[in-house]
Amino acid sequence: MHLNHYLDHMFNAESVAVIGASNVLGKWGFGIISLLLRNGGRKVYPVNRKGGDVLGAKAYRSLGEVPGPVDVAVIVTAVKDTPAAMEDCVRKGVKFAIVISGGFSEASEEGARVEREVVKIARQGGIRFVGPNCMGHFDTYTDFFTIPFKNPVRKGPVSIITQSGNSGIAVFAQGWDMGLGFSKYINSGNEADIHFEDYLEYLGQDENTGVILGYVEGFREGKRFLELAGDITKRKPVVIFKAGRTEEGARAAQSHSAALSGSDAVSNAAFRQTGVIRVQKIGDLVDTALALVSQPLPRGRRVGVISMGGGLGVISTDALRKLGLEMARLSPETIEKLNSVMSERWSHGNPVDPGGDPIIYPCIWPLLEDENVDAVMVVGGVGMVGGLTALMPIPDLLKDDYARFMEKSEREMLADLERMMDMMKRHRKPVIAASMVSGSVVKSRVYEKLESNYLLPYPGPERAAKALSRLVEYSEYLGIARGK
Amino acid sequence: MHLNHYLDHMFNAESVAVIGASNVLGKWGFGIISLLLRNGGRKVYPVNRKGGDVLGAKAYRSLGEVPGPVDVAVIVTAVKDTPAAMEDCVRKGVKFAIVISGGFSEASEEGARVEREVVKIARQGGIRFVGPNCMGHFDTYTDFFTIPFKNPVRKGPVSIITQSGNSGIAVFAQGWDMGLGFSKYINSGNEADIHFEDYLEYLGQDENTGVILGYVEGFREGKRFLELAGDITKRKPVVIFKAGRTEEGARAAQSHSAALSGSDAVSNAAFRQTGVIRVQKIGDLVDTALALVSQPLPRGRRVGVISMGGGLGVISTDALRKLGLEMARLSPETIEKLNSVMSERWSHGNPVDPGGDPIIYPCIWPLLEDENVDAVMVVGGVGMVGGLTALMPIPDLLKDDYARFMEKSEREMLADLERMMDMMKRHRKPVIAASMVSGSVVKSRVYEKLESNYLLPYPGPERAAKALSRLVEYSEYLGIARGK
Hints:
five-stranded parallel β-sheet, seven-stranded mixed β-sheet, homodimer
């Protein structure tokens, strides 16, 4: 049976048993069963040697007692009990296991011995498994969650393979704040059976996955990774954060996931050749994915900046230049068009600064129409979301005026936003926004529309510029953008 | 009269007039008068040539009509009307003006001419002024706000001098999210009269200011800045973000604040010699200030890391090493102590990873007691705030158990936090926390206590490590920490 068939079970199980399900708050076996009982529509069987019930559901003393078939078993037992649990799975005819338990090769020699034993039992019994020492997985399309606790997560096109459970959770937790949506999450753990590369191959073919993110400490099949990645990046982007970049970090990685990190420079070169987008932080995974799912790939490096105030223009220029992007030279026609919408105080060049007036969208059209501009970055107090007015205290006697003003302004902004998205598609130019005061963004209908189109502003021009530079990098790799 | 006396007026005015106060939503003259009428307890006089009333307060047709004395005038008129407004101030005996209006030397030759005229009128009339082309100022201690709109701001020890209004606003907006408190904000604008250096000298002596932050595009009195800074940094930290670092950024800065940026490398060297902490982003100003107001200065670069999960340990190690900090070698006694609080699965070294158990505070005590450790960094799902349990779905039948569990856990954590703050003081070691899932931090009493002590976790180990490295840098400058 092909591995992909096993992995279909992993994401599509109709029945699942949790060996080590628990009523004790704070235990991993509690969090997992609790999530499973609340999500999905599949059969869920708690297995606990004491029997009784778990969270109101009948608990079975052993897997053998479970009445129906079991597609997937989640194993949360102590290390020493894991070989027996895997044997139970073989006897029961389980096809796929998720071994959460820790204390294996990452912890000690004895742990490594038990891990080898578990692999042997699984191989002989025809079972494939994730882990051990992992924090499970999820699939938002089948509503199947085997992680022990979770932040809220939105359904969407981004999938994550991670060698660190917490780092993966951080990706979708931070993704939530940025409005990003996820399809699948896999914490590969010690990769005793299935490797990072296997999941990558699967997601490369998965139609619910549009962007693949990876947190990696080291590859068990480096050559295969590069071959796979080189193939997949032609169809969908692969973004990797490889940790263990310093000598000490690599040492810490080795004792964590037992993965050899190798030279950082070598990884860099290899990634670049295969079109993998390499990033340096958890947050960069999120920021890059957000740009990839919402923006057209630009045809060059020339950026037009619209900044609310000159200071933000200076900061944005620095940020873009440091990343090797270029400040577009606006054509005389563009200057003319901008003259017609702003007062004389505007900066008359790139960055475009309206000089105190709260003008945003009308500055975007001329830049998108300018052949000298490949991408637009909008940096302002509240991004493209509201206006200065949202931050002003409104006296009671003007409340009605204010409500009318805001309603009109919202209606106009929604129409402008629609127009912007049309123009982005037509001209194939990204429009990346940054906000300096994210905390106070008004949750208006404009905000909702930005969010549902993955267009929420980045917190700060540096993050926006970095995301844009990744788009350019990928676009150049694919031959859509001219190279440097 | 010494400039400081004028600046006392700026922060302590008993009466203020707004020339150009307006009822029109969205106008700067609207936002400013609206804030002034709601804050403080001082006399506020709207001046509008049409008379009538502004936001329910009687409006005067000219400054001359205002019945009582006026300490400070805020000028929001059009460029061409500004000389006349300044003349009115002279006639009225106003001591200090805040010129918000833009369109002066930053915009055109004609604007520069008018700016010189305004300076001349003010000089001859004995008036000092901020701006023009600025976004006002505030003082949370006197509750005096002349900015045209604002995010919420907390009273505290940090003051900001900024050559960009929006960048300064971003500092206290982002500071709000991080729990930071502010004393004074000054947007110096074009600095036609008072210079950045003047405000710096004032804040150096201001007892409500414990940390001085600056956003700078260029210095008008570079030599004086260095002399002042060298003197002040012996008493209180000065943190500067200098924008215009790239050639194109410097060009944008010149057209924004008409400031010459000079060489970036030269600034760097000069800053270092005078003990100025130089940062590279708006967010770094906030992060550095937060560490400076809450943490003891460390006596060296050796960091002990506690990480929830191995992956975060790897990321943290990379982040610290890249900044030149060192991974502390834990003493055998510390390893013993840690053995006694954690299961065998713990990492048995630095970074300290409990291996799946939600243990945080008990790992901190041994590190603070270890002579090989100069500082502690705690990186986890929810920082030092809650535990995994906060993210677990709780079934109804366990709600009571859960409430008891959380209540007990909160009580313990509050006691632990108290103990940690005591130990930080006693051992003079910082404890910097980072959270990977800031959005979901539970707003508990623990959170409130962390917040009121400026101890909220940084979003991500990179930001925590950077803040820590600034503490080390400043500590080395003061001779408290051993150098590299």
